[in-house]
Design a protein that fits this description.
The protein has 280 residues and is α/β, with parallel strands linked by helices. The protein has two domains: 6-219, Rossmann fold, CATH 3.40.50; 237-278, no CATH class. Helices cover 38% and strands 16% of the residues. It has helices spanning 17-27, 36-46, 65-73, 107-117, 131-144, 175-186, 188-191, 200-204, 247-253, 257-265, 267-278, and strands at 55-59, 79-84, 97-101, 120-125, 146-154, 205-211, 214-219. The protein has a seven-stranded mixed β-sheet, with helices on both faces. Helix 4 (107-117) runs parallel beside helix 5 and helix 10 (257-265) packs across helix 11 (267-278). The longest helix is centred in the middle third of the chain and has 14 residues, at 131-144. It is elongated. The relative contact order is 0.09.
Length: 280
């Protein structure tokens, strides 16, 4: 690990991204720009990888500040890969840091990098911020490279709302709308709808976290979650309408799916049902 950068002065005993940022500012290290909430989230989820020699890909190297931050946080024990369009970024390579120079929007280049780097524990997309590039990179690296238990993080999703990045509020094709669709995919086990089939996203996305300008995906092989039932004392729902007005009729009709649908979707019928229950 190269230690000539003054921002790599001896850190605190526990890994701390904020400690690095402070030292990086004091000693004039490589430039680094992140929203503050990113740092809070990284502190929470990256601690589990300390001492485990994680393999990290950062799309978008630019000034090299975040590469140095990962070096510091993981004590030089991480294997780090970077992707950037600028050939000058190649100078940030170290023994455990490899930089690939190319265009994030070039599917052939991204596919080649994917096949060369193998498994990854963490992917951070801080690249072009163009929604269609973010989507294409996710489709490549999440499914083909990210290990089970890994995290895929897309920064600066504010561009999904910016017209000059091809975005806009609820505009189809932005990364935010793409991520919302994946929320549906996560729930496909329960949908009972042919329009929402179980897919690789259903099988491999455990959790999606939305924060300000940030989306985080946690990868784990999933199965349809089973119901858990415990105990045997229960309310007698079969006779709940028995003593109510029109009770016997309601008890009979509640077995019809169209009526259940009508009650759930019509406030007047719902109120009628509730009042009959309350009269019991």
């Amino acid at each position: 690990m190269v230690t000539s950068d003054p921002s790599l002065a001896p850190p605190a005993s526990a890994p701390s991204l904020r400690s690095f940022i402070q030292r990086n500012s004091e000693f004039g290290g490589r430039k680094l720009r992140k929203f503050a909430n990113y740092i809070d989230l990284y502190e929470r989820i990256f601690s589990q990888f300390v001492g485990r020699r994680p393999r990290i890909l950062e799309i978008g190297v630019q000034h090299g500040g975040s590469l140095r931050m990962w070096q510091d946080y993981f004590r030089g024990e991480a294997e780090i890969f970077g992707i950037d369009l600028l050939p000058e970024c190649k100078r940030f390579e170290e023994d455990n840091v490899q930089i690939f120079i190319g265009d994030q929007s070039d599917s052939k280049f991204i596919s080649d990098v994917s096949s060369r780097i193998g498994s990854l524990d963490i992917v951070i997309d801080d690249g072009s911020h163009v929604p269609r590039h973010q989507i294409a990179s996710f489709e490549q690296f999440f499914y083909n490279n990210l290990t089970e238990g890994g995290y895929y993080i897309v920064e600066d999703c504010n561009t999904s709302y910016w017209h000059h990045y091809g975005g806009g509020l609820k505009r189809k094709g932005t990364f935010i709308e793409f991520s919302k669709d994946l929320c549906d995919a996560v729930n496909a086990w329960h949908a009972g709808n042919k329009k929402l089939p179980v897919t690789n996203a259903t099988r491999w996305i455990k959790r999606i976290t939305f924060e300000s300008s940030l989306v985080v995906f946690e990868k784990q092989l999933m199965e349809a979650p089973p119901h858990i039932s415990s105990g045997n004392e229960e309310i007698d729902t079969q006779d709940i309408f028995a003593d109510a007005s029109y009770g016997h009729l309601l008890k009979y009709l509640r077995g019809f799916a169209p009526l259940r649908y009508a009650v759930r979707n019509n406030q007047f019928l719902w109120n009628l049902m509730r009042k009959n229950i309350e009269k019991k």
